[in-house]
Amino acid sequence: MGRYVIRRLGQMVVVLFGATVILFCCLFVLPGDPVGSLGGDKARDPAVVEQLRERYGLNDPLPVQYGNFVKNLAQGDLGEDYTQRRPVTEVLGPKLVNTAQLALAAIVLDIAIGLLAGLIAALFRYSFWDVLITLLTTMAVGFPSFVIGMVLQKVFVIQLEWVPLISDGTMKSLILPAFTLAILDAALVARLMRGTMLEVLRADYVKTAVAKGLPRRTVLLKHVMRNSIIPVVTYLGISFGSLLGGALITEAIFNWDGIGLALVQAVQQQNNPIIIGVVSFGVGVFVLLNLIVDLLYAVLDPRIRLA
Amino acid sequence: MTELTKSTSVAGDATAPAKGANAEAEPAIARVTQWGEIRHRFLANKLAVVGLGLVLLLFLTALFAPLLAPHDPYAQDLTNTLQDPGSGHLLGTDALGRDQLSRIIYGTRIAVVIGLASIFLACLIGIVIGALAGYFGRATDSVLMRIADVFFAFPLLIGAIVIIIVMGRGIMPVIISLAIFSWPTVSRLLRSSILSVREADYVLAARALGADTRRIIVRHIIPNSIAAVMAYAAFSVGGAIVAEASLSFLGVGVSPEVPEWGNMLAAAKDFMGVKDFLWTYPSIAIVLTVLGFVFVGDGLRDALDPKLR
């Protein structure tokens, strides 16, 4: 186990290194000049431009810039953003809280809807409810988040006027974006849950449990549920990782002031420090959660030996 | 991720030889091939056939777009902006007076081209790298799989945006950016199915019969591993079309004047609640398209491994 963790941490470092190199190369062969767009439409004084390039270290050779970038990243210092000239961490901090709120709400909905639907479908296989759930979960995969978001917005904001159009940061305005994010994952969780439960229900240890006369409730809770939940935990962990990296579409539709929206705006403004901040955060969280999920897997299922 | 695990398990089982051919059957009777069985099971699945119908409809619309579209999708008519659906313009006109129906019809072309090309490219890269990793193993495997990990660690849209920052907006950049961050799944799939197929009894049998390595790979390992990749590919074309429309929706996909569904939705967002027909019809087009590919992908997966149902 200890050696496995060390090896996985090593792999994680390699992945993060590769990702930051890709990111760095992409953003610094960028055709546009970040400093050029700083002054707005006003004619730029070459001396000022030069001063700004010096200030942001844009005149150093690329390996030096990359070295500085990684050094600062390791210290949690992402530099200063180009438009507001505030530290990136300061700009992104509150947005990250918003994104985390949204991601957490979506995961809670995923668990509630997905587990319940999967459970019902598996326990009452081939019943009306199973067919309905299977059909709905298949359909849900075909609905892109922008379509779901716009339909929800039309129905609940414009027709029913239950929620304000512009999110005001309250719980009420969290509901629609959380649902938009959750529907696809909830459908996938339900399908996953149904599939694994059907497999577990056929397992020998479940037959044994039933045969030795355990109450149905005990068999379901202690034998079936515990074993069916493992793949779901894996899936949700990884999904949470990508949600934390910013739900671009959902945040754009609902004007949710998170890091996804910040990324889209930063791309339009060629605001490299923000882009680097959001993307490396997204990649880092994704990789870290993958590791945690793999370790959790071994804890939940002692049959799995990590080596 | 689910697709990955599901489809890898497909590969392990798809290797089972067709059970139809049993010893008592007379030699004269047409042989039941594995692919014949798969086709039969696929066509028996109603949802899969519906999906196939939707995909065919999409392809035909894309092919005959100039014949089907009543107007030029680019032609602006500033005296006829935001017309409600009705005579003259069946699905109304947008803020620049362009015919909605024609733009939706031409939108199928972008969807088909980007969806197919990006997944084709992803499969090409993924199959080569996955086959090399799975076949050579050891150091080659570790290095190639770490590279795959790096690209896999980028969420698709975020990674695609980074590439588009460099390449600029357009059809080609979108295709390339989607392929760059989609191939790791293909290579992981192919690699793991090669690993499981490599130890299969029939490979051992072929080796015992004296087949050389090249023949084993080309005739036995690849055909039996590729099934999982095919099911994944059919499914992912739908995903690529969603991703492509998402990029346009965010203003970083194909250029805004191009008739493309994500562009149409992005423009329609401002008229939410006022001119809802602007976003409902392109949405329907996207949903039907994606469902088509999802149904075909699901049908293929089930046909390849009937045990999974």
UniProtKB/TrEMBL annotation, chain A:
Bilayer topology: Multi-pass membrane protein
One GO CC term on file: plasma membrane
Domain ABC transmembrane type-1 per the UniProt entry, residue ranges: 96-297
Parts of the chain that traverse the membrane: 12-30, 102-124, 131-153, 173-193, 232-254, 274-300
GO BP of this protein: transmembrane transport
Top-level taxon of origin: Bacteria
Keyword Metal-binding: no
PROSITE patterns: ABC_TM1
Swiss-Prot/TrEMBL keywords: Cell membrane, Membrane, Transmembrane, Transmembrane helix, Transport
Keyword Cell membrane carried by entry: yes
Pfam families associated with the record: BPD_transp_1, BPD_transp_1_N
Cellular localization per UniProt: Cell membrane
InterPro entries registered for this protein in UniProt: BPD_transp_1_N, MetI-like, MetI-like_sf
UniProt record similarity statement: Belongs to the binding-protein-dependent transport system permease family.
Name used for this protein in its record: Peptide ABC transporter permease
Organism: Streptomyces roseus
